[in-house]
Amino acid sequence: MTLKCRRLLLLFTFPGYLAAAEDPLAGITKGLFNGKRPADAVQLVGERGYTLVPESEKVKSQWVFDQGVLTASPKWDSLVTPDVYSDFRMHLEFNVNSVPNVDAEKNGNSGIYIQKRYELQILNSHGVSEEDYKASYAGSLYRQKKPDQLVSKPAGEWQSYDIVFRAARFKDGKRVENARISVQQNGVLIHDDYALTNKTGAGEKEGPEPGPIKFQGHHNPVEFRNCWIQRLELDEVKEKDAPKPKKKKGYTYVIPFDEIPAAPALKPKEALETFRLHKQFEMSLVSHEPAVQNPLALRFDGNGRMWVVEMRSYMPNANGEGEDAPTGRISIHEDTNNDGVYDKTSVFLDGLNQPRSIALYKNGVLFGGHEKLYFVENVDGKAGKRTVVDENYTQDANVEHRANALFRGLDNWIYNVKSDARYREVDGEWVKEKTSFRGQWGLSQDNYGRLYYNENWFGIKADQLLPNTLMKNSNFQLGRAHGRHISYRDKLYPARITPGVNRGGEGAIDDKGYLTAATGAAGPVAYRGDQFPPEFQNTALFCEPTANLIRMIHVSRKDGLLTGEHLMGEREFLASTDERFRPVNLFNAPDGTLYVVDLYHGIIQHKHYLTRYLLEHIKHRNLESYPRLGRIYRIKHKDGPRGPACNAWEKAWRASCNSRSLKWLVARYGPAVDY
Question: Residue 140 and residue 324: Cα distance in Å, rounded?
Answer without folding.
Answer: 47
